[in-house]
Design goal:
- A two-stranded antiparallel sheet has the order 1-2.
- Helices cover 52% and strands 9% of the residues.
- By secondary structure, it is mainly α.
- It has four helices and two strands.
- Helix 2 packs across helix 3.
Length: 107
């Protein structure tokens, strides 16, 4: 009987945790105003995620890193200057970086 309780508690905790992660990834991000960041060629996912968290674009660098692994986008992140709108969800940040949607300057 105690094994069943442990199993059920583990299932409940897992569902709650994954639901929380999904909301963090897909819900509005913490950014209050437009922000522009430059990521140089060769920047690691660790440094990119840390900078995104430091600048208030994402809430959790660790969750961003896990999302890059799970989504398969880890190796597709491109260098460049990116402009992030207020409230951008974390998954959209990742999509921008993977698709290389950089700022285009016109002269």
């Amino acid at each position: 009987l105690w094994l069943l309780r442990i199993f059920l508690l583990t299932c409940i905790f897992s569902v709650a945790f994954f639901g929380w992660c999904w909301r963090q990834a897909h819900g509005p991000g913490p950014l209050n105003q437009e922000q522009t960041l430059l990521f140089r060629k060769g920047s690691s996912v660790n440094s990119i995620s840390a900078e995104l968290e430091k600048q208030g674009i994402i809430r959790h660098a660790w969750l961003f890193k896990i999302t890059t692994l799970v989504s398969g986008e880890r190796t597709r992140i491109k260098a460049g200057e990116y402009q992030f709108p207020p409230g951008i969800p974390m998954v959209q940040v990742l999509n921008m970086l993977a698709e290389g949607k950089v700022v285009v300057h016109r002269f």
